[in-house]
Amino acid sequence: MPRFKTLLLAGAAAMLPLGAFAHAAQREAPEAEVIAVDEDSDTPFDSEADAARAKAKMQKEMDEVIALVEKMFDIESLPPIDPARLSLAERTSAALIPNGSIEKMVDNLYGKMFETVMGEFGGQSDLMLSIKTGVESEQIAALDEGTKAQIADLFDPHRKEREDQITRVIRPLISEALADMEPPMRAGLAKAYARKFTGAQLADLNAFLTTPTGSRYASEWMALQADPEVMVAMVKAVPPLITKFIDRAPEIEKDFKELPKEKQLSDFSDKELGQLAKLMKVDVKVLKEQRDMWKSDSMEATEAAAADDYAADAAADAAADAADAAAMAAEDSEYDRSNWSDADRQRVEELEAAYLEAEAAAVANARARLPD
Question: How do the domains of the chain map onto residue ranges?
Answer without folding.
Answer: 1-78, 79-226, 229-259, 265-369
